[in-house]
Amino acid sequence: MGQKINPLGFRLGITQNHRSYWFAKPKKYSKVFEEDKKIRDCIELYVQKHIKNSSNYGGIARVEIKRKTDLIQVEIYTGFPALLVESRGQGIEQLKLNVQNILSSGDRRLRMTLIEIAKPYGEPNILAEYIALQLESRVAFRRTMKKAIELAKKGNIKGIKIQIAGRLNGAEIARVEWAREGRVPLQTIRARINYCYYAAQTIYGVLGIKVWIFQDEE
Amino acid sequence: MATSMATSVVVPAAAAVNARSANGAECSGFKVSMAAPLLSSFVGCKLAVPSSSSSPSCSFDGVQRRSAIVSQAVVAAAAGVTAPSKQKIRIKLRSYWVPLIEQACQQILEAAKNTNALTMGPVPLPTKKRVYCVLRAPHVNKDSREHFEIRTHRRLIDLANPNAQTIDALMQLDLPAGVDVEVKLS
């Protein structure tokens, strides 16, 4: 509907850190930005292709990219690192190769690390992916939302809100449903709120899933 | 004028040495944009000086007096790099984040002070703000917009009388990601 500002952008600089750390002069800025996007897309694609066999969702919370002049550090924060380390002993070599092919000039070294998150369901990205998975396998949405909230409460969060929009349960008329537990003060800037939007592709169309998680204040 | 001729001769040799650090050396004042193992320009400077001492005599072939003056200036420049005298390093830092640039300044000043070079700074230059005004709505509503800005924080550090130790220490420095460094030798 268009009145709420993205809580991540609202808090950038205070209680929210950037996901990419680099400096580029105005002429090169767009190229570096495009490269960042390509790296993230490549990682997402790799996860979707390779994790099809197991539980079907990759569990990547965020990707942080730090650039120094001849080193690119990519840190992948994931809740289930075992899923990404596919074959024995190889680690993320394949993923690293893929990303290196994408980077335009091979002049720079690439360093990729996997960082595990304790309590993965406290991250909205992972939770939203889980909900999408359930919805795509035609589970009733209300049950999905309740289960997701239960999963999230296992971590120490102070509030969670889930909103699902679209053709719920395959209905002809789309509607919006949301469930909340605890408090989620979106107007408070010092509240640390993490947010994610994820689209679930079902046979009836796209369901938009928004997850807000209120971690703590300050 | 003799000294400016000397530097313009030194630069091509240094550029050949620094072929790897892609952002090339410009002729005006030997400005080299920095990359993470900082100050590879110093390597180029040291190597360039002995090789260029021969070239002035080649380029100013027929004019004996001028070649003498130029080679003198080159020797002075050579002496300037290795022995503490009028050499000055100007380091310009740029970043979008204040804590990062402060940290980078502290690291550079520490490295310089440990090796006994005179430091001047960090001088905070005015912050540059690039403001973008975009429409809020996807379709109509031209009157409602939103402003975004990118703030570039800048700091300036001067190091007088650098010696080989300073240069080594600076080269080994590992500055935080997100800080852009530009080094100018004069």
TrEMBL record, chain A:
GO terms for cellular component: chloroplast; cytosolic small ribosomal subunit. It comes from the Eukaryota. Residues 47-118 form the KH type-2 domain. Gene3D superfamilies: 3.30.300.20, Ribosomal protein S3, C-terminal domain (3.30.1140.32). InterPro entries: KH_dom-like_a/b, KH_dom_type_2, KH_sf_prok-type, Ribosomal_S3_C_sf, Ribosomal_uS3, Ribosomal_uS3_bac-typ, Ribosomal_uS3_C, Ribosomal_uS3_CS. It is found in: Plastid, Chloroplast. Keywords: Chloroplast, Plastid, Ribonucleoprotein, Ribosomal protein, RNA-binding, rRNA-binding. The keyword Calcium does not apply. Its main location: plastid. Coiled coil: none annotated. One of its GO terms (molecular function) is structural constituent of ribosome. It holds the Pfam family Ribosomal_S3_C. GO terms for biological process: translation. SUPFAM superfamilies: Prokaryotic type KH domain (KH-domain type II), Ribosomal protein S3 C-terminal domain. Part of the 30S ribosomal subunit. Belongs to the universal ribosomal protein uS3 family. This is Small ribosomal subunit protein uS3c. The gene is rps3.
Automatic annotation (TrEMBL), chain B:
One of its GO terms (molecular function) is mRNA binding. The keyword Ribonucleoprotein applies. InterPro entries: Ribosomal_uS10 (IPR001848), Ribosomal_uS10_CS (IPR018268), Ribosomal_uS10_dom (IPR027486), Ribosomal_uS10_dom_sf (IPR036838). One of its GO terms (cellular component) is chloroplast nucleoid. PROSITE patterns: RIBOSOMAL_S10. SUPFAM superfamilies: Ribosomal protein S10. Signal peptide: none annotated. Keywords: Ribonucleoprotein, Ribosomal protein. It comes from the Eukaryota. GO terms for biological process: translation. It holds the Pfam family Ribosomal_S10. Residues 90-184 form the Small ribosomal subunit protein uS10 domain. Gene3D superfamilies: Ribosomal protein S10 domain (3.30.70.600). The keyword Ribonucleoprotein applies. HAMAP family: Ribosomal_uS10 (MF_00508). Belongs to the universal ribosomal protein uS10 family. This is Small ribosomal subunit protein uS10c.
